[in-house]
Amino acid sequence: MTAPAGTPARDTDVERVVGGYLDHLAVERGLAANTIASYRRDLRRYAQYLAAAGVRGLGEVAESDVAGFLAALRAGDDGHPPLSATSAARAVVAVRGLHRFALLDGLVPGDVAAEVRPPAPARRLPKAVPVEAVVALIEAAGSVEGPRGLRDRALLEVLYGTGARISEAVGLAVDDLDRGSSVVRLAGKGGKERIVPVGSYALRAVEDYLVRARPALAAAGTTAARGGVRGGRLFLNARGGPLSRQSAWAILRSAAERTADASLAEHVSPHTLRHSFATHLLDGGADVRVVQELLGHASVTTTQVYTLVTVDKLREVYAGSHPRALS
């Protein structure tokens, strides 16, 4: 479509629009640096794909070009291996965001990417470990001598006792845990807070850590770390600073390697105790919507994946127990 006389044509050069979109994501939407880097990588590949197809301006792109890019991602080429459904979906989300941005900025007359759907990733069941394995993990974490063992045990007890994400646990302030009411305030995704009950095992482990270990760790750090006021982190590293997510994950992995089950280290992940928390609750008869609230899921659909795990367990018990279950 030709612009009216006297109206300057908008510059829809793909590379320039990509640059403007990335600036928008960084400045106006405040996305994390790692997220921006992923978008930049995906959109650079999209721009190269369009250039190879002879497309120079975003206004020239057709829906078939976007669909073709998705197909190319899944197929791979000489310079790129085929992408999984999850990775390809991430790239398509970036491309759709680019076209939506261009439409809202008046650079193009329509959104040709709106109807191109990202591929659905294969549904992966969360991996939980048996209760005995959780106990072994916690015992192994607490077997380390000195303040570190008390801290590590308290951390794993909190993770399993509340279903917190590792990032939520390491972000806890001392005052987020109300030992009188036996609840903890967790700051989840998007800054959403939720109140979760804390069991007696976790409370005792935290009490031991606060009395016998945290003061020694805090002594090596800053005034903020030493304080019992809100803002003083609950879990500290050996230098008295806040324990990082990476360090917490290393604690879990190290504990798994010290258990009698040599294969356990192959199955643990940052979400292992969270998944086990949810699965064991459902196995014990908890309502899925209660588990949803405890996990901080926005939709019960996200939580229902755990019911598939428990159905598998029911099927296993049935097959081993009912006299006419097996032919």
UniProtKB/TrEMBL annotation:
Forms a cyclic heterotetrameric complex composed of two molecules of XerC and two molecules of XerD. Residues 124-319 form the Tyr recombinase domain. Site-specific tyrosine recombinase, which acts by catalyzing the cutting and rejoining of the recombining DNA molecules. The XerC-XerD complex is essential to convert dimers of the bacterial chromosome into monomers to permit their segregation at cell division. It also contributes to the segregational stability of plasmids. Its main location: cytoplasm. Residues 12-103 form the Core-binding (CB) domain. This is Tyrosine recombinase XerD. The gene is xerD. Pfam families: Phage_int_SAM_1, Phage_integrase. It comes from the Bacteria.
